[in-house]
Amino acid sequence: MIKLTIDNKNVEVTKGTSILHAAKSVGIKIPTLCYFKLGDMPIENRPGGCRVCVVEVQGRRNLAPACVTEVTEGMVVKTHTIRALNARKTVLELILSDHPTDCLVCAKSGNCELQTLAQDMGIRQLHYEGQQSHYREDTSPSIIRDMDKCVRCRRCEMMCNEVQTVGVLSGINRGFNSVVSPAFEMNLDHSVCTYCGQCVAVCPTGALTEVDHTNAVIRALADPTKTVVVQTAPAVRAALGEEFGMKPGTLVTGKMVAALRQLGFDYVFDTDFAADLTIMEEGTELLKRLGEYLAGDKTKLPILTSCCPAWVKFFEHQFPDMMDIPSTAKSPQQMFGPIAKEYFAQKINVDRKDMVVVSIMPCLAKKYECSRDEFKHYDMPDVDYSISTRELANLIKQANLQFETLADEEFDQPLGESTGASVIFGTTGGVIEAAVRTAYEVHTGKKLPKLDFTELRGMEGIRSATIDFDGLPISIGIAHGLGNARKLLEDIRAGKSTFHAIEIMACPGGCIGGGGQPLHHGDLSILKARQQALYREDAGKPLRKSHENPFIIQLYKEFLGKPLGEKSHHLLHTSYFDRSKLPIYIQAKDHE
Amino acid sequence: MSSIKVELKQCEIEKIKEICQSFNNDPGELINVLHKAQGHFGYLPAEVQEQIADELKIPVAKVYGVVTFYSFFTMLPKGQHPISICTGTACYVRGAEKVLDEFRRILKIKVGDTTPDGKFSLSCLRCVGACGLAPVVMVGEKVYGRVSPDGVKDILGEYSK
Ligand code: SF4
Ligand code: SF4
Ligand code: SF4
Ligand code: FES
Ligand code: FES
Q1: Which domains does chain A have, with CATH numbers?
Q2: H/E stretch holding A210
């Protein structure tokens, strides 16, 4: 243990602790910009570059950056001397001298760490005027890169390279022109970017933001010729409240439904319904492949989940030799589309071209997923617009709805009915738990004695458990974060994997930590609270197994036939494409 | 950084593999690998960088990051007569900037670019150790001292026959 004092407080911490964390342990906050850490997960960015965190250390001539300076025995640290405060101000003013000042109309306003720092430090005037760097804006199906607003903290680079191991983003150029960019300054849509949005989730400024579809949605709602149907992903209800000042983990399912109805959606449905449908299809596929495996064809397992579009794009780029391992089931978002436009539209006598399907997602990859060609029919996307949890919050604010005061309302039927199994799709471990509940009962013909598979729950990056299918041990793997997924995939490639079924989600924590969720600013307790909220919602549902959803049963009876049947195959399953060889596509220069 | 499109021949791919192997395909040796590759190809087109990334098993964005960080790496083939202008302190003080402007004006290219006919390319150097002759210009191996903007035309004339 190392003993030191910070602002005259005695502190005792383990060797190797930074001044920043030592201070935090006694409730002293030091401002930071480039530094980022997601709770106790192995997700950390500390390039020590911005020097916003400088403090005074007795006996040292220079100020020390708190995030990268380790404590030493007897150290005397002062975090808010005039000298430290002035140095921080200067550093910040220099950063601001090469930053646009259009805060009022910036998508990140109110949530921007740079803006907060400027306010907290009382910056009222910019003393340094200089040339500003200019870059071309890069718009992809999901993400906008506006590098004029980049402060070169390189958090995005850390997320993309170390956590996701996608490797799209890298610091390029030097000095004034340095910025974070894909190779050859190509646009994101020419790169292997998965659109997981984790770079957006950690960017402190407005340099990385989502493509905003709220105006398109408003136009659709205002068009009297359109029937506008909305579906809401499970993770949204556990996070939306945060945008209105509610405690993380507050479930706002009923208020969200009420708000959507007031916004003018004709039918407020639930992606959870489609998640139950996913379980019917994916679970049946699991059992089919398990049967073939048990009959001797060892190539049939493991089966991997396929409901995360970022994960799908990841393996299409990086593991094209293994494309028949994931399930062919579409994601719930993309199952919902054709069910709404083929089945429900018919039921209510609406031409599919007059129906607009909007999805509310915790996710940025879902925007990209909507744009994939195989999810378009008659030249129209099955899901027209996907907006994030954050965009929905903006929409609600624009409409002047007092979200906190709305009385709870219920989803519409039939596509709004769901079971507890589908609610937990929003967290790591949830999809496979939902699949197990159904697969177990279908396979064994017996009722499950207990529905909570706590052994599948948690936050560790890679987890495993064995579930007893009435004498048949089924070995299950779970990974969240694409770097963890990569490890499991490499094991499979090397023939070392012993799992029968694996669940993969691209985002740390699963969709509760998606790139479209309210920003967590590194606070892992927020993700954990959202996770607990989903398990609470599941526990409180009268039906908790997908195959018991009465409207799913009806859908198969009236329309689909049976899982993996002809119609399901056509509407609910998909195929994957080898994207390993990308042409180099060099645009005009980013900057001059 | 602009670039031209090239298609690597099998023997060039082999050459890149060989260069990487000579550094045990160690990503830590990226700078040395790039040096050797530029020595061989004369420049580092995107396709060469991709191949190197594949061999060292690192993202191509990282390779590009290093190529753009160090000014001695270039993604454009040098001209037949590469022109380098010293912008070290002594040369700068003695008017290297004006000389550079004149080259830019006549050749109609930016620093780091090559004329469309492939004849001249333009780059800047830090002090070349001939401060007594400032401002200094090099064309290929040949050194020109005390260059004035007016002298630029004559220098280019020597190579324009
Ligand atoms: S969206 Fe994901 S894959 Fe794409 S650049 Fe950001 S972190 Fe990398
Ligand atoms: S894009 Fe955002 S996260 Fe990435 S370096 Fe710039 S400011 Fe930091
Ligand atoms: S984990 Fe969820 S939020 Fe993240 S990319 Fe995948 S589907 Fe989207
Ligand atoms: S936060 Fe410590 S150097 Fe940037
Ligand atoms: S500064 Fe040009 S030769 Fe020294």
Answers
A1: 2-96 (3.10.20.740), 103-210 (3.30.70.20), 215-572 (3.40.50.1780)
A2: strand A208-210
